Structures are given as structure tokens and as C-alpha cells.
Amino acid sequence: MVPDTTAPSCLSRRERQRSRQIAMKALNRPPSADDFLPVLIYVVVRAQLPSLYLTVKYISVARHPSKLVAEPGYYFTNLVSALSWIDMMDASFLSIDKAEFDRFVFFYLQSTSLCF
């Protein structure tokens, strides 16, 4: 069988590997499905990928829906959910004060081009 190297498949493979590594370090146990989205949100924020929103938008529009089912669809949906959560997040979502949150967001937005 030829490995699928399309964007959603590569992305899901990387997400799965990275989330497993982070969860094992943080939780000292194998990750569960409930651990995946918070870890993915963390990875997306820390990765600061400048074209991630554009890539997700492109995949949403250009990728045939039949290719976004099962596991690739699960990971893509989680990625879209992570990006939506990041877009809606404010200081009240986290256990930090508003000034610290605003400082982080200011520097983060300067280093990336986030526009969904």
C-alpha cells in the first residue's frame, strides 16, 4: 500500500505523533481522546505557523469532502476546532490576568499572520 502524503494525512500523522509525545510527558500515561484537543491547541499556538489559517481555509474549499472522512476528517475537524478556540480565546479562558494575556497576544500576532 502506498502511503498517503496528502496534506490532511500528513497533518494528522504529525498531530498524532506530537500530541502523543506531549501527553506522555505531561500526564505520564498514554493520551486519551479527551487529551487531544487541548494538546493540539497548545501545539498550534506554540508552532506559530504563519499560513496555517490560509491552509485550513484552502483545504476546506478545495479538498473533496470524500477525502475528509474517517481519521483525516477527525484530525482536520480538531484542527479547525483548535483554530476556532484560539480565535475566541480571551484572558477569561485562561488562568492569567488580562494584561499578561494582552501582552502575549500582541507579540503573537506580530510574529504570525493570523486571519481566518
Structural shape: globular
Look at the structure and give the mean pLDDT. 79
Sheet with most strands: none
Rg result: 15 Å
For this structure, the quaternary state is single chain
Write the H/E string, N to C.
HHHHH
Q: In terms of structural class, how would the helical and strand content be classed?
A: mainly alpha
What brief labels describe this structure?
116 residues; mainly alpha; Glutathione S-transferase Yfyf (Class Pi), Chain A, domain 2; 5 helices
Describe the model.
The chain is mostly helical and 116 residues long. The protein has a single domain, classed as Up-down Bundle (Glutathione S-transferase Yfyf (Class Pi), Chain A, domain 2). It is 69% helix and 0% strand. The chain has five helices and no strands. The chain has helices at residues 7-27, 33-47, 52-62, 70-88, 98-111. Helix 1 crosses helix 2, helix 1 (7-27) packs across helix 4 and helix 2 packs across helix 4 (70-88). The protein is globular and about 45 Å long. It starts with 6 loop residues before the first helix and ends in a 5-residue tail after the last helix. The mean pLDDT is 79.
SSE inventory with pairings:
Elements: H1 7-27, H2 33-47, H3 52-62, H4 70-88, H5 98-111
Helix pairs in contact: 1-2, 1-4, 2-4
In short:
The protein has 116 residues and is mainly alpha-helical. Helix content is 69%, strand content 0%.
